[in-house]
Amino acid sequence: MSPWLPPGLWRLIRVRIRAAGRAQLNRMRTPWGALSALATVFFLFAWFLPRWLSPDFSHRMDAVSVQRVGPFGLLVLWAGQITVRGGGEVLGFVPAEVEHLFAAPYKPSELLRYKVTVLFVTWWLGALLLTPIASFYAHTLLGALLSVSLVLPFLQLSAMVSAMVRDGGKRRPWFRVAFIAVAASLPLLALKMGPHRTPAMWATLGAVLDAPISGTLLLPFASASILVGSDSLAEVLRAGGVLAAVDVALVVILLLLGRGEWLETAAEGASYMQQVRSRYRSGGMSTFGTVGSWSVPRFPRWGGAGPLLWRRFTELVRRPATFATLGGVILLVAVLAVALPGGHGQRESSAYALAVASFVWSMVLVPGVLRADFRAELDQMDRLLALPVHPVAVVVGVTLPVAVASAALEMVLLSGVGLYMPNVGAELAPLFVVVPSFAAMVVSVENMLFLFLPVRVESGEAALQSVGRNLIVSMLGWGMQGIAFGLGAAAAFGAIWVTGNLWFAATVASGALLAFTAGCVLVAAWRLRRFDPSKHVPR
Amino acid sequence: MVNVVEVEGLTKVYDGAPAVEDLSFALPAGRVCGMVGPNGAGKTTTLRMLCGILRPTRGSVRVMGHDVHRDPISAKRALAWVPNDPQPFEALTVQEHLEFVASTWQVADYQTLAEALLRRFELLDKANAPAQTLSTGMRQKLSLCCAALHRPELYVFDEPMTGLDPLAIREMRGWVREEAARGATLLVSSHLLSLVEDLCTDLLIVVRGKRVFFGPMEEARSQFSEHRLEDLFFQATST
């Protein structure tokens, strides 16, 4: 009987685990790395310890609900996994593996076994970290452990099998026809199973779930729900056994399918993921999707800030994620507005709550989501520093577009509230004066801090530090934004006390925020002048 | 004479458009073949098919008599691949990369050769450095060392001089000649025509996936009535 893996691949797994541990330790040797790691540990203890120690604290999910709706929810997630994620990237090979393993004397099946082994090591190491979190929600610790160690492999292995089937379909047309036929028969099967003449959706869903065939089809999903929702150790062990058997079956199917020629698909997937990773490292989530071809008019030079503003604005409008973010938020608010409770007083208070929520979202979260300022320039710092432009102009040119975008979003949302509730809208109208300067303040604080403490979106092998580092930076940012907010609020209250005029108060508050923003821009420019990409850009 | 590599009717089609079309050539032992062509000519696609990473739409590649796609293990034992943008395992050290290569190709007592290669390509002091700390040129050198460690019969190089300093380029030239003298065959894709002219015994010119010329360098010169490779290249590719 041949061994599971050739010695070379075992050795590679061993040295990679060793190297990951070494990289983690090396990063902790710098003061900033050590501080970040300490912050992570502190955060974990501060968050988890009271929950572990307190007998009253529990987020245990209702067993009946979990076992009733859980399988269906997981089925939807699983269906999404196998239909949306179907390319070679699902197989999980990285460019280094393509370079060093694909041209090496290994059989495709050996490479696939190697990948499955690596994934299981990663999943189970991840399970050790995730189990404490899952234990707040699961009814038993064993259930928490088994659910995170078996459900993640189930989802990923299913997607890998699906990718293999599709890859086979590329070369064999009958395979593709069979795949489409099976995929198309699933909803038909669901319709057939339930009394679809019943109008109530929940009743139909219940009938579908109660149908005998559903029991078999949903077995892995039901088992996952039992792991989370059951108090009985015997039930948990039985469900764990079922899910483990399903995972093993998926591995076997994967290895049978993986005897064919899938290397090209995996190499293409690795290359695609490298591009995504590269964009992700420099631009975050907002860089996904196809780039559009819109443009904005050119601005005057404005001391060098104009061309930078044009570049950033153009990039912003060409990113589909910008519109997805803005459009999604507006749509969500519109839906919520329609669904607001009907009573007059309730509607008013809900409208206020909506206005506050939209303010927090568009002013505080959107700049971070869009990542179209210095956070997207980390790999372009050389070019920015080489520009014949004053650092203040560079800071303004790079940061202003995000401030404008988030302010524009907030104004649209406020207008929506005003249209829906004219009385509330009239009271909120002075906010239009404050919104642009508040957005500018938020963005300038975040960018100034980023220039002092640049962090990457993705953490690579330094996940331990990443949590702490982001926490420290976020807390500093919130602290500074809190101070600016306090200054603006104090100025506004002072103005109201003296004049009683809301519009005047808003103008004064706006002025205070702009003064704070100007200070941040100057400090950011000072830092930019001293920024050394060879030292300050994290790898 | 037995050919180290034989390519017959190699074709790769993407969405109906051929990237490589009916490409054929063969190289015996000890030859250094320069593969040149404009951007998008299909050079990298050809090299990746030679190494068994991409599967051809049609045609075959044989390395030491073994079909790369039907008998990949035997074929891959005899070849080494150096891509144009080396991607090492970021957290692994230089030494660990060599350790892994030695284990994969079952190179016994690799340490002496590894040390010699690292010294030659000035990586000895970086032996314990993680790959993520290496510059582009050093990554290229590491990739060369990994390729050379198992002393393959066929080297497949895609732009091997990228990022190398003058000293390393000189070492590389000398090393290529030594390997050819040992009996290894080297297929080198490069835009550096002076390098190809200096090092290569044979020339393969491809344009839009098709072979425009294949043969010894002298034959190319006489066929295109040009002495300098640069002039020859422009004449051959100006269609």
Structural class of the secondary elements of chain B? alpha/beta
**What is the subunit organization of this protein?**
heterodimer
- Rounded Rg of chain B: 18 Å
Q: What is the CATH T-level topology of chain B?
A: Rossmann fold
What's the number of helices of chain A? 22
Mass-distribution shape of chain B: globular
Mean pLDDT figure of chain A: 79
Low-confidence stretches of chain B: none
Q: From N to C, what is the helix and strand string of chain A?
A: HHHHHHHHHHHHHHHHHHHHHH
Please give the radius of gyration of chain A in angstroms.
27 Å
Annotated CATH architecture of chain B: 3-Layer(aba) Sandwich
Share of helical residues of chain A: over 70%
Determine the N-to-C terminus distance of chain B: 35 Å
Range of strand content of chain B: 25-35%
Please sum up the structure shown.
The complex is a heterodimer of chains A (539) and B (239). Chain A has 539 residues and is an all-alpha fold.
Entry keywords:
heterodimer; A: 2 domains; B: 239 residues; alpha/beta; Rossmann fold; four-stranded antiparallel β-sheet; 9 helices
Structural overview:
- Chain A has about 550 residues and is an all-alpha fold.
- Chain A has 2 domains: about 60-275, no CATH class; about 290-535, no CATH class.
- Helix content of chain A is about 80%, strand content about 0%.
- Chain A has 22 helices and no strands.
- In chain A, helix 5 (about 110-135) packs antiparallel against helix 11 (about 235-255) and helix 13 packs across helix 17 (about 390-420).
- Chain A is globular and about 80 Å long.
- With about 240 residues, chain B is an alpha/beta fold.
- Chain B has a single domain (about 30-40, about 70-235), classed as Rossmann fold (3-Layer(aba) Sandwich), CATH 3.40.50.300.
- In chain B, about 40% of the residues lie in helices and about 25% in strands.
- Chain B has helices at about 45-50, 70-75, 95-105, 110-120, 135-150, 165-180, 195-200, 215-225, 230-235; strands spanning about 5-15, 15-30, 30-35, 60-65, 65, 80, 155-160, 185-190, 200-205, 210-215.
- In chain B, the strands form 2 sheets. In chain B, strands 6-7-8-3-9-10 form a 6-stranded mixed beta sheet, with helices on both faces. Chain B has a 4-stranded antiparallel beta sheet with strand order 2-1-4-5.
- The longest helix of chain B is centred in the C-terminal third of the chain and has 17 residues, at about 165-180.
- Chain B is globular, with a radius of gyration of 18 Å.
- The mean pLDDT of chain B is about 90.
- The chains are: A mainly alpha (about 550), B alpha/beta (about 240).
- The interface of A and B includes residues 7, 9, 16, 104 and 263 of A.
